[in-house]
Amino acid sequence: MTKYHLNLAHLYGDLLNTYSDVGNIIALRYYAKQMDADIAVKVVSIDEEFNPDEFDIALFGGGQDYEQLVVSKDLPNKKAGIEKFINDGKPLLAICGGYQLLGHYYVGANGEKIPGLGVLDHYTLSQDHNRFIGDITIKNEETGQEYHGFENHNGKTYLGKGERPLGKVVSGHGNNGEDGSEGAIYKNVYCSYFHGPILTRNGEIAKKILLAALHHKYPAADFSQAEALEIKPTF
Ligand code: GLN
């Protein structure tokens, strides 16, 4: 029995799971165990209610345009819940398609404009006959940490108010191939184009997400040991 228990909502986990984004949950569980915590997972999909008070962490994975279109039609039902979850300061990890759908809209590869949640202030355009594909390395400017991953997206994302990049591109393309940014951080929301999955190669991000969830759920507890957890590089 672990001392702490976290509940994770896997948003549209049956539809958005490109390149095994679900592996992020395996990585979270791996590090959570070292913090004396376990994680119960529930997929919250189409027509299901998302109650923000039921969950401590959320994962919103990537997908193809078709699945994203299906999901976008259901998003208005979950908007208030997701907005509250984020504003309460709970951690959410959004990858690629999920990242795009947190913003105002994204334009699919066929030119169709697909509305997002508009909870974060970014938007995503499409590029003609091109995708950003390959290995990518970025550097977080606040911590100096380097993150490694694999990107594969048509969308070009432009950040908005209150968002700062997850990192500056060292090699690869990133959000849009123009401004040198990759991903976004807003409150405790971490967005990225990294598949692979991101947390298996970048345990420091898993650690941040877990600590945010634990501090939020157990405000009086002492997590100094968890804070001191050493993450060994896995790339
Ligand atoms: N359809 C989106 C794009 O290509 C997202 C792809 C993904 O999640 N891998 O930009």
TrEMBL record:
It comes from Limosilactobacillus allomucosae. The gene is gatD. The lipid II isoglutaminyl synthase complex catalyzes the formation of alpha-D-isoglutamine in the cell wall lipid II stem peptide. The GatD subunit catalyzes the hydrolysis of glutamine to glutamate and ammonia. The resulting ammonia molecule is channeled to the active site of MurT. InterPro entries: Class_I_gatase-like (IPR029062), CobQ_GATase1 (IPR033949), GATase_3 (IPR011698), Lipid_II_synth_GatD (IPR043702). The keyword Glycosyltransferase does not apply. It catalyses: L-glutamine + H2O = L-glutamate + NH4(+); beta-D-GlcNAc-(1->4)-Mur2Ac(oyl-L-Ala-gamma-D-Glu-L-Lys-D-Ala-D-Ala)-di-trans,octa-cis-undecaprenyl diphosphate + L-glutamine + ATP + H2O = beta-D-GlcNAc-(1->4)-Mur2Ac(oyl-L-Ala-D-isoglutaminyl-L-Lys-D-Ala-D-Ala)-di-trans,octa-cis-undecaprenyl diphosphate + L-glutamate + ADP + phosphate + H(+). Keywords: Cell shape, Cell wall biogenesis/degradation, Glutamine amidotransferase, Hydrolase, Ligase, Peptidoglycan synthesis. The active site is at 96 (nucleophile), 195. Pathway: Cell wall biogenesis; peptidoglycan biosynthesis. Its EC number is 6.3.5.13, 3.5.1.2. The lineage of its organism: Bacteria, Bacillati, Bacillota, Bacilli, Lactobacillales. Substrate binds at residue 131. This is Lipid II isoglutaminyl synthase (glutamine-hydrolyzing) subunit GatD. PANTHER family: DETHIOBIOTIN SYNTHETASE, LIPID II ISOGLUTAMINYL SYNTHASE (GLUTAMINE-HYDROLYZING) SUBUNIT GATD. GO terms for biological process: cell wall organization; cobalamin biosynthetic process; peptidoglycan biosynthetic process; regulation of cell shape. GO terms for molecular function: carbon-nitrogen ligase activity on lipid II; glutaminase activity. Residues 8-202 form the CobB/CobQ-like glutamine amidotransferase domain. Belongs to the CobB/CobQ family. GatD subfamily. HAMAP family: Lipid_II_synth_GatD. Gene3D superfamilies: 3.40.50.880. Forms a heterodimer with MurT.
